[in-house]
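Re: weekly structure request thread

Next one in the queue (286 aa):
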Amino acid sequence: MKWPHGNRCAAALTFDEDGECVAFGYDRANAQRRLSLQSETTYGPDVGLPRVLDLLESREIHATFFVPGYTAERHREIVADVARRGHELAHHGYLHERPDLLEANEEEEALRKGTEIIQQITGRRPRGYRAPSWEMSARTPGLLKQNGLIYDSSLMGDDEPYHIQAEGHERLLEIPVHWTNDDWVHFGFCSSPELGNGISSPSKVYDTWSEEFLGYYQFGGCFVLTMHPFVIGRPSRIRLLDRMIGLIKGTEGVWIATLEEIADYVTQTGQGRFRPRADMRLEEEA
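Done, posted below.
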């Protein structure tokens, strides 16, 4: 793929500001009375997100923030500040519901509510979407197109943006992600119920992320970091992010952009391969 201004690759910093939706996802039945669990997730909008915003401002970088509607309702001021600072606000469901576990009407309602709340706060409709837990349903691409969203960032089928089948002959731009470049995989931890892979040292994660970035650079791809303010906003990890930004900005030929900017560029230049969805079926036993 050809990147603007002769750059060799693209890079985007993205943040899933899930807020208290994470607590509901961990333990929906008991989350409201588990104060420790609540405090861990509220750390995101209260502490981690302001810290992230200050770092991005000092580094003169605009990023993409995916925010569930429920989180935006609870933390309107800081979410509005994200937009005021020039960052992209994108759709991430209403209560961080996995689309593949919803009925059709439930998925449509979550999409509608999340869109309306972001529009109320920012004055504009979101143009991008990321499925909670990166799990889309077969309906999702078509619903996104119907609701005016121009890209999704949930799938893992390439190292650069590509097009997926929506409805009929409609196509939706996909800006791919990968678990390797997600902070939760390396730092996520919840004691009860047991979730996450444990807690890694920032130096180990830097080694992984920096090698991934240099690989994307070599192959001319689109490097997307996915982070959560309640995870990456911890003191040692914000230093890790600053170190990664230093590497990315210090590498010649890297276009640092929001996902919306990347989507507009790819669409306007007519680039990106088309990957039709393949229906997977198990062969019946003889």
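The domain at 8-270 is CATH 3.20.20.370 (TIM Barrel). The CA atoms of residues 83 and 180 lie 28 Å apart.
Next request, please.
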